[in-house]
Each structure stands twice: as C-alpha cells, then as structure tokens.
Amino acid sequence: MIPEIAGYITRREGRKFLKLSDEVDDSLISSSILRPGQQLSLYIHIPFCRKLCPFCCFNRYLFNAEKAREYFIHLRHELDIYIQKGFSFSDFYFGGGTPTILMEELLSFISYLKEKFEVRNISLETTPQEITPEMVATLKKAGINRLSLGVQSFDEGMLKSMGRTLCTAVEAKQKIGLALGQFETVNIDLIFNFPFQTLEKFCSDIKLFKEMDINQVTFYPLMPSPHKKSALERRFAKVDNSREKRYYNSILREIYDQGYQASTVWCFSKGERMIDEYIVNYADYVGIGAGSVSLINGIFYVNSFSLEKYAENLKKDRLPIARRRNLSEKEYYQYYLLTKLFGTKINKVQFKQQFGADIYQKLGTELRLLKLVGAISETADEIRVNRRGMYIISVMMREFFTGLNTLREISIENQI
Ligand SMILES: C[S@@+](CC[C@H](N)C(=O)[O-])C[C@H]1O[C@@H](n2cnc3c(N)ncnc32)[C@H](O)[C@@H]1O
Ligand code: SF4
C-alpha cells in the first residue's frame, strides 16, 4: 500500500513538473546561472537503431548512415554553443538509441571532447549485437570507462517476443564475454515485469548475471508510455504493476542481500560502487542531441525530438530547445530528493555546502514522511534508503520515468 501511495504522489507531482512551456529563450542558458564551483555532467544522445524495439520509449529512428552523419555535425555544433556559453564538463554519458552505430563519427566526437575538456569518465551504452573484438579494443583505446549493454533478458523466447531479433541470447552472452575485463565497469540492462515474463525466467536471468561474473546490472521495471502500453497489452497481456513487487523482491534477495552494492535502487555492482547514472552523480546535467533533457539550476528543458527541427535550430546557431519549465524552489528540491534517493543516499553535509541550508529546512515534510513509513535511516551526516525503502523509491522513480516517457511519446508524435 505504501509504495502505491508514494507512486501516486510522485505521478501527480511529476505531471506538474513535466508541464512544459513552448516559450523558450536560449539566452537564459548560460554558465552564469551556475552556482560557484557547480559541476554538470553531459549526456549525449545518439537516436539511431538498426531495428526499433516496440516497448522502447526513447527518441530513436531507424538507422540511416547519411542522416546519422549529418546528425553528428549538428551535435558538435550544439556542444560548441555550450562551450561558447562558458560551460565545461568532465563526465560524459553516451546514450541512445545506439551510440556505436557509426563508429568513426563516435570516435571523432570523443576526440573532440578530449580536445575541449579534461575528460574524467565516459560511459557508453549499446546493444550486444554491435559488439566485436575490434570494437571492444577501439572503445577501450578511446577511453570508455563504463560500457553498458542492453541485454533485457537471456531467454530466447522473451527476446523474440520483445522484438529483439537481431541478437540471440547465446550471442549476447558471447558479446558480454568479449567486453568483460576490458573496461572499469561492464553493465548489463535487464527488464522486469514484462507482460509475459515469469518470475522463473527473471530469476534465471539474475542467476546468469551472477554466474558470468558481470560487474554491474541495471534492472529496469517496464515503464511504457500510454500507446506503448496499449500496444503491448493488445499483443500480450496486461501490464500489471501489482506483479512488480515479486520481481523486485527477487532482486533484493538474490542481489542486494548477497552483498552487491546498490548505486541506485535499480543498479547493483560487484565490489566497490562503480560509476552509474548521470542523474544521480550530478544534481544538474546538460543533455545534447535530439530529445535530450537538461536541468540547470531549476531550469528544466527538452530539446527538439524531430531531427529536422533539431537541425533547423542549430543551423540558425540556436540551442535546439523545444520546451522549458522554470521549476519552483520546492520542485527543484523535490526533484533533487527523488534523484538522490534513487541513488540510495544523501549527504547532509554536502547538501548544506551546496545549497547553504539544512536539508530539513528545505525538505523537512518529505523526509519526515519517508522516515515515518520506514523507508530511510539517518546518521549525523547521511540519509540512506534502507531495505524497506528500496521498493518504495523504485516505484516512485518508475512513476516519474513513466511520466517522462509519456512526454517523450507526445513529443515524438507531434514531432516538436
Ligand atoms: C535506451 S536503451 C539503450 C541500450 C540499447 N539501445 C539497447 O537497447 O540495447 C537503455 C535501456 O532502457 C531500457 N528501456 C527501454 N525502454 C524501456 C521501457 N519502456 N521500460 C523500461 N525500460 C526500458 C532497456 O533496458 C534498455 O537497455
Ligand atoms: S531498446 Fe535500445 S535498441 Fe531497442 S529501440 Fe530502444 S534504444 Fe533502440
């Protein structure tokens, strides 16, 4: 009951948060709005795939080499505008789509990043089918620290039904084997609570992850946008969130209780905490590429999803921002709370340094409620999500991301 209530509140607040305005003014975006010493991470979106998975809500298009080449030119231009505006980054996250789909362009972009910035970490996601020994060597040489592979499931039947027909589970295992040991972190993504998935199949996926000695796993609860949800339900069965807790309990039992470190409530690493999601490590971030989202000091904005509109703006030397919202102070702190709790802990001292106020002054009601329901524990310096709180925060994040996926769906359909 408590996770459902927490999910309901997040869904309601998330809807308000994601009500965006089309009055955009890119002159508002400048490094002068940053707090002194504030660091941002950079997310870089590559929206091309060889086949489009029916459940996926990200901004993605069927791969076309010419379009993708042109896209990389605009991407560099967008980055240049941020540089001109005085922004600097050291941690980078390539997401998609499939960032490795045009390797020579990706490598040239990474070289450009190294020319312009002091690069500390690069995280990159791709699909297992893309991986070859040569690609692994090239990505390693290019300085990729974390490679994330979207496996979804090791069950052949599941993959077929999910429309992931370009790479079998047997091949995926081989590809993971090629990457293991070559990067600081190799992560795999697994999905849970897919309509026709069974708990047994999911537990086999977890077992295989452990047997293969993979560094890190990110478990995604299914978060379909409304149209994707109806399409899945027409084809398979109801997307039933009441089944989800059983899946999450398996994660707690088989992963969390077995000593894996949680860097988010969905991401678990073997051994020490490894790098993970950009939204957790940095309170604020810039996203470049079509359909990327950014948050800088209370300004939340999304880029054009349409490749044409994205390009049009950049040709005019303008940031390709399509929608924006200036968050209220309360919204900003609540978003901060959600993302930090997603990352399982909040450093109270850091909060005070960053915002010049005690966390209870800004988020007292929320924290007291979370304590009351037994979701968090506290020491003098830190607030931590405890075992009971893990699923509560997972539901809250699922609801927030489902809202974001709905925004993506509307934006793609309207080609904003
Ligand atoms: C954007 S994809 C990039 C990885 C890569 N393109 C791939 O599919 O292998 C990142 C992850 O998002 C997750 N994902 C995509 N659509 C989702 C949805 N509707 N609900 C939950 N997770 C989703 C998948 O687990 C996927 O691996
Ligand atoms: S899940 Fe990955 S491969 Fe499939 S459409 Fe989405 S981004 Fe592309």
Give your account of this protein's structure.
This protein has 416 residues and is α/β, with parallel strands linked by helices. It has a domain at 25-283: pyruvate-formate lyase- activating enzyme, CATH 3.80.30.20. It is built from 15 helices and 17 strands. The protein has helices spanning 2-17, 65-84, 103-116, 133-141, 156-161, 169-179, 199-211, 226-235, 244-254, 278-281, 307-315, 329-342, 348-355, 359-372, 387-413; strands at residues 40-46, 48-49, 61-62, 89-96, 121-126, 146-152, 185-192, 216-221, 261-262, 267-269, 285-288, 293-296, 299-303, 321-326, 345-347, 376-378, 382-385. The protein is globular. The mean pLDDT is 94. S-adenosylmethionine binds next to strand 6 and strand 7.
Question: Main traits of this protein?
Answer:
single chain, 416 residues, alpha/beta, pyruvate-formate lyase- activating enzyme, 15 helices, 17 strands, binds S-adenosylmethionine, binds iron/sulfur cluster
Q: Can you describe this structure in just a few lines?
A:
This protein is an alpha/beta fold and 416 residues long.
How many runs of DSSP E, i.e. beta strands? 17
**CATH class wording of the domain at 25-283:** Alpha Beta
Bound molecules: S-adenosylmethionine, iron/sulfur cluster
CATH superfamily of the domain at 25-283: tm_1862 like domain
Class computed from helices, strands and strand pairing: alpha/beta
Task: Set down the secondary structure blueprint.
Elements: H1 2-17, E1 40-46, E2 48-49, E3 61-62, H2 65-84, E4 89-96, H3 103-116, E5 121-126, H4 133-141, E6 146-152, H5 156-161, H6 169-179, E7 185-192, H7 199-211, E8 216-221, H8 226-235, H9 244-254, E9 261-262, E10 267-269, H10 278-281, E11 285-288, E12 293-296, E13 299-303, H11 307-315, E14 321-326, H12 329-342, E15 345-347, H13 348-355, H14 359-372, E16 376-378, E17 382-385, H15 387-413
Parallel strand pairs: 1-4, 1-11, 2-3, 4-5, 5-6, 6-7, 7-8
Antiparallel strand pairs: 8-10, 9-10, 12-13, 13-14, 15-17, 16-17
The protein binds S-adenosylmethionine and iron/sulfur cluster.
S-adenosylmethionine is lined by residues 55-58, 96, 98, 125, 127, 150, 152, 189, 191, 220, 222-224.
